Amino acid sequence: MGSKMAAGEGGEGKIMSRKTKKKFSMKQIQPIPMRSQRAVATTSRLTREFGLVPALQVVTDTLSVTKQIVQKNLNRALNLDKPLPAGGESVAARPSLSWLEFFLKIPVKVFNAAFTPMGRKNLAYAAKKSLLKLNGEFRAKGTLIYKLNDGSPFVLHRGNRLSELFYLEGAYEPLETLLVSKVVRPGDVVLDLGANVGYFTALLDRLVRPGGEVHSFEPGDSTFPKLEQTKKLLRLDQATLHRKAISNAVGEVDFWSSTSGLDAQQKTTNTPALSQELRLDRVAATTLDTLAAELTSRGANQIAFVKCDIEGAEPAMLKGAKKLLEAENPPVWLIEHNREALADHGCSSADLLKPFADGHIYFVPLCWPPSLMSVPHAQKWSGVADELPDECNLIILPTRGIFAKRAEALRQADLLS
User: Fold this and answer.
1) pLDDT tens for each residue of 92-117
2) Topology of domain 141-249+286-412, CATH
3) Closest residue by Cα to residue 288 from 321, 319, 322
């Protein structure tokens, strides 16, 4: 670039080429502190040695220092650094520097938007949201079928923040998605407990074809209709939807849900995490052993896989699944571990892990945004409950029965550490 920056006492920075810099007298301005001089001098060297991006970073740092100098000088010139006299002029009567702050922030904002991952993500978010406002189908119907990054179709639902996140990110829990894709086979009977708007329901429906069954459970009064829309619009013919909670007994349970669009935060306990906009419902509940008995009575295949994300109610669910856990052919599990949510239900990590004592347990730490893959492989659990991440998904592979062989597919795909 071969240029340097100087800040004038009048508040205006100037870019000087090598040909003109000698004509500019440094006596015209207040001396710049040494740290600013070093930053300015480093800009050209970084550009030559490393390219434009690190040089721009130094430029933005320099602008920040320059802004401080200019603001200090203007404060002195306008007497803004002196205390107000008693009963004198008001602060509102003094000149505002908002214009200066605005212009000095522009290069920083441009740099962040163009050269940082979060800046590029925010630009992509803004572009997608703008295009969505122009989409007549979404404005009229409140739903939109679109393609995720992997090419599979999914549905955007108006007023559901988790659904919007899927749309903006284009992916969700990619490692878990890969793990499920390797262990579920055509013809399997699989369960989605806490289905929400149906991301895993849609994935499982594709995997079990032909001849398989997906049973999805979602008790949320505002969420279940959206799950029904997902099934209808994507033609999830293998999926059967159940407007029920899974618990330790057949009957009814209290169910707290957010009315502010936070449909991912629904629980059988009332906690601050649910926000202030809440609704309490009594919802129907059943147990996994009851469901398994119903499937067996009509000659369905044994349950091969269970995905479970029910916000800390997992230990109660497991109490109603004793026969399934002790069966000759126990299923593969993908189950969420959330230490805080478990504590809200009066449970601990040990309560969640104990029923799987004879299984091989792996975990995937949760990260934000959930479209990122936090680790390349599922990590082997050490056996100490407190050493698990506070929030992670557990993959539990049986050590006996016909589904124990599914672990080999994960090892061959290099998805287990």
Assistant:
1) 444 455 666 666 666 776 766 667 77
2) Rossmann fold (3.40.50)
3) 321
